[in-house]
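Chapter summary example: a protein plus NAP.
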Amino acid sequence: MNLSGNTILITGGGSGIGRALAEEFHKQGNQVVIAGRRQQVLDETVAANPGMASVVVDIESNEGIRTFATRLEKEFPQLNVVIHNAGIMRPENLLENTDDLSAIDATVTTNLLGPLRLTAALLPLLRKQAKATVMTVSSGLAFIPLSLTPTYCATKAAIHSYSQSLRYQLRETGVEVIELVPPYVQTELMGSAQASDPRAMPLKEFIDEIFALLKANPNATEILVERVKPLRFAELNGVERYQEFFQSFNQAQAAPH
Ligand SMILES: NC(=O)c1ccc[n+]([C@@H]2O[C@H](COP(=O)([O-])OP(=O)(O)OC[C@H]3O[C@@H](n4cnc5c(N)ncnc54)[C@H](OP(=O)(O)O)[C@@H]3O)[C@@H](O)[C@H]2O)c1
């Protein structure tokens, strides 16, 4: 994708990776529109970046997504990039609370149905543009699950699968599909402690590496920073080595980050 001159929607753009991407794209000369549930964090982000725009949306609501897409088409008819960054990550003990499926439902609805529904709602507009991009956000955990968060990892594996099918179906259109595969990054995804966890990649370092990769290879289909490669390619080492890695990875991460 071109790094400037786009009109870019970033879901979950009021915090963490989404906000950092929004600020960098804004700096590089793009019209950036951020979206999320919390008006206050959106307002703070826009105030810190004059010219940025925001729209409140709850990606869990199918009806909300349709209204949101209609509004975007009216207010930002040039929209040509969507970054499906909104997501939640919740620990689940599958042996307990078997009657309470709220974490499972919320995770699938936000992380999987949200991007799928929003892609469907925005594709007619994206296809009107000369060049457009759908950027999905999966995770290194799509490729080696952290068993503490089973539904989260399953949704991210599904996003990886969907990204490939979408890319193939759109191959003869002007819409490209890029999958951003973050490693463990310092944000508040799983709570405030994560933002200063020394095991996680500093957010600025992550964003700088993403932009360097996008610049070096504008036709990349996956954005893989160095830190995520051991997870992304874990299966290439064969089943036995993968199983060993899975065991040690899950033992090392047994405590919530
Ligand atoms: N940080 C990591 O280690 C890591 C690793 C791999 C992948 N990722 C992925 O990166 C993405 C961004 O996460 P992050 O680390 O930056 O965490 P974050 O700061 O918690 O960001 C998540 C964003 O998603 C938005 N969101 C959540 N539920 C939503 C809903 N129902 N409707 C609309 N927006 C919603 C949140 O905004 P509101 O609460 O205001 O709605 C928030 O801005 C996620 O998809 C995550 O899975 C992160």
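Key point: The first helix runs from residue 16 to 27.
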